[in-house]
Design a protein that fits this description.
Elements (H helix, E strand, L loop, with lengths): L3 H14 L3 H12 L16 H17 L11 H21 L4 H30 L3 H20 L2 H20 L8
Helix pairs in contact: 1-2, 1-4, 1-5, 1-6, 2-3, 2-6, 4-5, 5-6
Length: about 180
Amino acid sequence: MATKFWQAIGLGVLAGMRSMTAPALLSHSLSNNPTKKLGKSRLRFMQSPTTAKVLTVMAGGEIVGDKLPNAPDRTAPPVLGGRIVSGALVGAATYKASGGKPLKGALLGSAAAIASTYGMLALRKYLGKATGLPDTVWGITEDATTITSGLALLKDPAYAKNKAREAKRKDVKKAKRPRLAKTS
């Protein structure tokens, strides 16, 4: 897994691309791999399977809505605000889940979301003019990039090692417990 710094930046960038995809992917990852570090935090809802499902539905709606001709510009104040909040949420949750300070993660995630929002808008406009392809093509490309990048960013090779260590500790604890003889 990327360090919490780069993961917060990366998820913030994805939040700037698709505001609901980044939290949906993070929530899905956390619901499958919960951490005690979020257990008593206000961010613990991100580990909930229900939250993961709701955010996934919202992300799907955003992906469809982006292709509609009357979709608002991503830099319109309410839309940009949503991307900033999304970046702050994924940054804070990432930092807290890694034992860091959520405020630092929120600031990193929101800054990355702002930069990405404007950067992707400029890139999509440029690609549309340079290729003559409709914006929908670039929107679908952006969707695919956001999803695959998010999945790659949240893939945690250290997770398997940590789970193996935890399982080994549990096995050792179980082995040390005295067994009671069964009586009939």
